[in-house]
Design a protein that fits this description.
481 residues, mainly alpha, two-stranded antiparallel ribbon, 20 helices, 65% helix
Length: 481
């Protein structure tokens, strides 16, 4: 299968340089202070490592019954480079995962089209979507890793159908299992959407319903049940994951839901910029020029049609869900990048060079933000104050038991810094039901569960406040203000 217009090897070189620059532009983020809820992976990974329990996600002394694959990677890398570098290690894993998604996409596109330049262009687009390039692709959340694993599973499934090779389905099994262990049942929703699309194709269905593919599919579906039994001896792990999905379906008020439904596609368009805006302009130009035959030819091209259908089947439920977020659709964004690459290739080398210039401009903006703007923001508003607050709390509470009941994003960050600064002491946990001496951090100025403890200090963290409670002899000791 050949792309609309064959691209020169020079385009491939330019696209790969762009890909490398986009990935490298995230290197400055390794030195950033913690952002958002990055403390979750750091706190839970440290506690799992200290407990020697790799099967369950421990955080604040509680089994959170969640995926642990990302934690395994954080533990391995942080143990190698030193736990004081855990924030950088976590981000490095996610940056490499983002790059991995681009490389997997290039491999898939090359296998489908046998065009190295088109494959390189798709990879470059994949890592330069605004949301990925500027924020989500380096952030120390599980999402980039989940995206790489899920897309890898979809790509392996696609290649097994395209090449009629059951060996690729082994990759689908392994990558789906790893994706499940990263963030739960949601991995099956994405891979299942792709499987459903292929099962609706007569030739693919004939291949996938053979005995060996069916057995591999059953083995893939068995992973959550086997893991839950191994980790907890029952299915409470899966019940927790299903309940988490149910929370996302909690209804909103009529106007709030309508606002979500209307704004989500617009948000998607912006988060996929700048290439999404350029592609939209070209498509609108075709429409205005009434060149509908060209548009029809592009839409009916088999790989484009398949990618669009899989993306739509996966995207629409998140679009219509009451509680939605763009990061939830990250696993299928490489499919959009593949479609955009084909659309741009239709414009010939002039169009491709125009697109590459736009993407280079995006990378330049990212470098300014990563080296100047965001460090200033962290110094002035939110970031550095987490580390300073952690140090102040540890100085004030030295010699007494210390607990953390603060599960806000700011509280998670402060707790992570305290955990790393306290090493080799155990990670902080929730205050026990019957504690009679020591200190507890909380996000509430009147935490009922901590009574009759009293607030002895409060620390302003931009829009949040961390409160330090004391009880028993700790309240009688003269400490630093």
């Amino acid at each position: 299968m050949m792309p609309p217009q064959s691209l020169s090897p020079g385009i491939a070189r330019r696209a790969w340089w762009l890909f490398a620059a986009a990935v490298a532009s995230s290197i400055p983020t390794l030195g950033f202070y913690l952002v958002g809820e990055e403390g979750i992976l750091i706190n839970s990974s440290l506690e799992m490592w200290q407990r020697g329990d790799w099967m369950r996600l421990w955080m604040y002394g509680v089994d959170a019954k969640h995926g642990v694959f990302a934690n395994w990677l954080v533990i391995l890398l942080s143990s190698a480079v030193g736990w004081e570098h855990a924030p950088a290690a976590t981000r490095a894993i996610m940056i490499l995962s983002t790059a991995g998604s681009g490389l997997l996409l290039a491999f898939l596109v090359f296998q489908l089209y046998r065009d190295a330049a088109l494959a390189a262009l798709a990879a470059a687009i994949c890592v330069t979507f605004a949301d990925i390039l500027l924020y989500r692709g380096w952030l120390g959340y599980r999402d980039p890793l989940l995206a790489m694993l899920v897309f890898g599973a979809i790509a392996a499934l696609w290649l097994s159908v395209a090449q009629r090779r059951t060996a690729w389905l082994t990759g689908t099994l392994l990558l789906t299992a790893a994706a499940f262990l990263t963030k739960g049942i949601i991995a099956y929703a994405f891979v299942g959407a792709a499987a459903l699309v292929f099962l609706c194709q007569r030739e693919a269905r004939g291949f996938l319903l053979r005995p060996v593919p069916v057995l591999i599919a059953l083995a893939t579906l068995a992973v959550p049940f086997l893991w839950a039994q191994a980790a907890g001896g029952d299915q409470s792990h899966n019940s927790r994951l299903v309940a988490e999905i149910g929370d996302k379906l909690a209804p909103l008020g009529g106007w709030a839901y309508l606002k979500n439904v209307v704004s989500y596609p617009l948000e998607t368009l912006l988060r996929l910029s700048p290439v999404s805006l350029l592609v939209l302009w070209w498509l609108c130009s075709l429409w205005r020029a009434r060149q509908l035959e060209s548009l029809k030819t592009w839409l009916t091209e088999p790989p484009v049609r398949t990618a669009l259908i899989i993306f739509s089947v996966a995207y629409i439920p998140f679009w219509l869900a009451p509680q939605n977020h763009f990061r939830y659709v990250m696993p299928v964004l490489p499919l959009v990048a593949a479609v955009f690459a084909v659309v741009i290739a239709w414009q010939g080398e002039t169009g491709v060079r125009t697109a590459l210039r736009w993407l280079w401009a995006a990378v330049a903006i990212k470098l300014v933000l990563a080296t100047v703007a965001f460090p200033i923001y962290q110094q002035k508003f939110r970031g550095e104050n987490y580390a300073r607050t952690a140090k102040a709390v540890l100085q004030r509470t030295v010699g007494f038991p210390l607990y953390s009941n603060d599960t806000t994003a700011a509280g998670l960050s402060v707790t992570a810094y305290m955990n790393l600064q306290r090493l080799p002491l155990p990670a902080l946990t929730f205050a026990p039901a019957a504690w009679d001496n020591g200190y507890v951090t909380s996000y509430s100025p009147d935490a009922a569960e901590l009574r009759p403890a009293k607030v002895v200090a409060q620390y302003r963290l931009a829009g949040d406040t961390l409160y330090l409670y004391c009880k028993g002899k700790a309240c009688l000791t003269k400490t630093l203000p």
